[in-house]
Amino acid sequence: xxxxxxxxxxxxxxxxxxxxxxxxxxxxxxxEALELGYRHVDTAQMYGNERAVGAAIAAADVDxxxxxxxxxxxxxxxxxxxxxxxxxxxxxxxxxEYVDLLLIHQPHPTVADAETLDAMGKLVDEGLVRHxxxxxxxxxxxxxxxxxxxxxxxxxQVQYHPFWDQTELLxxxxxxxxxLTAYSPLAHGGxxxxxxxxxxxxxxxxxxxxxxxxxxxxxxGVVAIPKSTSREHLRANLAVxxxxxxxxxxxxxxxxxxxRTAESFLRGRLPF
Length: 272
Ligand SMILES: NC(=O)c1ccc[n+]([C@@H]2O[C@H](COP(=O)([O-])OP(=O)(O)OC[C@H]3O[C@@H](n4cnc5c(N)ncnc54)[C@H](OP(=O)(O)O)[C@@H]3O)[C@@H](O)[C@H]2O)c1
Hints:
By secondary structure, this protein is an alpha/beta fold.
């Protein structure tokens, strides 16, 4: 496993996303991922799966200290009191004394980021949270959050894949030594049957999905958190460190498209 280092913190370049997996499916997928070598797991209060994630980590033959564990504050838990109460409840469900990263899941329409970040900073001081960050923040809001936060902001977790551009944010993250965490790195599944990705993958004996992940992690400062419940896909998504894309291939893969992104998002939600 390779790591991305920012602010002296090492983050495993590939993590396991766990949105829309719950219960036994989630426990099994996280357990298999840890067995296969994943050391980074992304959950959220909103996903309703912290108990399953915690059970899988507790049962795994891997020390808790080796796993980079992220959770995110739900929209309803952003007041100072809500941050502290809900994070303690998350730790309880996750069966751990600390999380490596606590994120603001999305901008709040009324609670000031400063209030939320201040409470998150207190949790860092208490040792319940190692690092703090945000998710779905614009560059401007990220800048203001960095100014307001008593603890350094390690990452902005945002949608990033071949059909969604993040050039401006990525430049900002590199200048200020932040990690860009790419969510929905497979475009919610839309990167799986793409001719360009498949053709490039064929040159290296890799799938289109693997090329999409390689494209992300080959960019300085980017980590990716693909979700999978299939052992075969979990294994494939980790096998992206043994080949490198050329500059020309990197350029050919980036094809920002609102239509492609929206299509993939909707297809990923169909029940069939
Ligand atoms: N902060 C936020 O607001 C936010 C929003 C969205 C997502 N996220 C995080 O990002 C994670 C990933 O995003 P996502 O779940 O939206 O989508 P994704 O990782 O882009 O795509 C997941 C889909 O791709 C399939 N897949 C995975 N690996 C594959 C492979 N090697 N070959 C073929 N298909 C493969 C999965 O099916 P199988 O399960 O069958 O493999 C699943 O249908 C989430 O789980 C969550 O942790 C965060």
